[in-house]
Specification:
Blueprint lengths: L2 E5 L3 H13 L3 E5 L2 H11 L3 E4 L8 H9 L6 E5 L4 H10 L3 E4 L4 H15 L8 E4 L2 E4 L4 E4 L2 E2 L4 H12 L5 E2 H9 L7 H15 L9 E4 L3 E4 L2
Parallel strand pairs: 1-2, 1-3, 3-4, 4-5
Antiparallel strand pairs: 6-7, 7-8, 8-9, 10-12, 11-12
Helix pairs in contact: 2-3, 6-8
Length: 225
């Protein structure tokens, strides 16, 4: 049974989410501000967090940054902020998904299930993937180049992980956008160009002529060992 931490200062919304989640056999904790959220995350160890950005004591991005200092628990942002730059800021801080208010309960629950699935360890034979100078530790979410750790943002890692787990196979632009940013980002191909360029700069020996992170023009991307 998965445990969900709901963080929002709207009592009616918290109550509605709690009722819907418990009806689907989730265990639910609730916090109405950032400080309580961080405390409950540390003491109750939720499997996923649903987080509003507009909290009374701190911005939700600060909560995400605080969480990412010690945990990889999936965070689904639930916010009335629609601006693209605010979404990117939350995702770069470490959020796993972003849902704008008003929202459909079915869509939110689907994203919740997807976040829990992604965070659940699988029976993977390729927990560590090595190719040339690069080593990817999928369980520890770490990458090394020539024996040295490479620092990736949470979003960079998420893009990389999807590609590495599909090694040798084409991952379409739509699939990659859905897996990393969610269904509402299916057309935001500019995100992929930016993050692929960042990954190549950090990981490829010659970013202008990539060996491992390959673009299939007009279709998607592929990771080659």
């Amino acid at each position: 049974m998965a445990r969900v931490l709901v963080v929002d200062d709207e009592p009616q919304l918290v109550r509605a989410l709690t009722i819907n989640l418990r009806a689907r056999k989730y265990e639910v904790d609730a916090a109405h501000d950032g400080a309580s959220a961080l405390h409950l995350a540390a003491t109750r160890h939720p499997d996923v967090i649903i987080l509003d950005l507009g909290l009374p004591d701190m911005d939700g991005v600060e909560v995400i940054s605080g969480l990412r200092g010690w945990t990889r628990v999936p965070v689904i942002v639930l916010s009335a902020r629609h601006a693209s730059d605010e979404k990117v800021e939350a995702l770069d801080a470490g959020a796993d998904d972003y849902v704008t208010k008003p929202f459909g309960m079915d869509e939110l629950l689907a994203r919740l299930r997807a976040a829990v699935r992604r965070a659940t360890p699988a029976d993977e034979e390729d927990v560590v993937v090595e190719t040339g100078a690069l080593t990817f530790d999928l369980a520890a979410k770490k990458v090394r180049r020539d024996g040295s750790d490479v620092r990736l943002t949470p979003t960079e890692w998420h893009v990389l992980e999807v590609l590495v787990r599909n090694s040798g196979r084409l991952v379409t632009q739509r699939q990659l956008l859905q897996d990393v940013w969610g269904p509402s980002y299916e057309t935001e191909t500019n995100y992929l160009r930016v993050y692929m360029a960042q990954l190549r700069r950090k990981l490829e020996k010659d970013p202008a002529h990539p060996r491992h992170f390959i673009t299939e023009s007009g279709m998607g991307y592929r990771f080659e060992r």
